[in-house]
Design a protein that fits this description.
By secondary structure, the protein is of the alpha+beta class. Helix content is 30%, strand content 37%.
Length: 155
């Protein structure tokens, strides 16, 4: 599949925040599930060069955020809700990794995922990510357990 990455516009951010809603326990990942996350996502200055919309053809299929930390890049991502659970995650995720490596040339890529999200964890492991640690994070009005994972980039 040919994925096209471009900087996320305000209109795209607002569309995702308003219209991308996940089913069941995955509603945890709705952008509007946490007020602070929502405010940051909708702030063009905070999104600036870090948030990218991903299209396949003309269809928006997901987004990535990249936090450049020098030798490391921390990523976040979301796939359009109606596309999740259909076996498309690994290809989408690998495209994000290739983009991060070509843009930032990091030694490693890290991410954090809620420990209940077995579906995403399987994708990350298949892509070559390894477990680092678990930690608790306050979000969505409570405290949740997350798993930090990392990927060593070939240089």
């Amino acid at each position: 599949m040919d994925y096209i990455f471009s900087k996320m516009s305000q209109e795209q951010a607002e569309n995702i925040a308003s219209n991308w809603h996940y089913e069941g326990e995955y509603s945890f990942y709705d952008v509007d599930a946490d007020e602070e996350d929502l405010a940051e996502f909708l702030d063009p200055k905070k999104r600036e060069d870090s948030h990218y919309i991903v299209k396949e053809g003309e269809e928006e299929i997901g987004f990535f955020s990249f936090n450049d930390k020098g030798d490391s890049v921390d990523i976040g991502l979301g796939m359009k809700p109606e596309l999740t659970g259909r076996g498309l995650g690994l290809g989408f995720f690998k495209a994000g990794l290739r983009f991060a490596i070509s843009k930032y040339n990091p030694k490693e890529i890290t991410l954090s995922v809620a420990t209940f999200n077995d579906r995403a964890i399987k994708v990350y492991k298949k892509a070559g990510f390894e477990f680092v640690e678990t930690f608790m994070q306050d979000t969505n009005g409570s405290s949740f357990e997350f798993l930090k994972m990392k990927y060593e980039c070939a240089r």
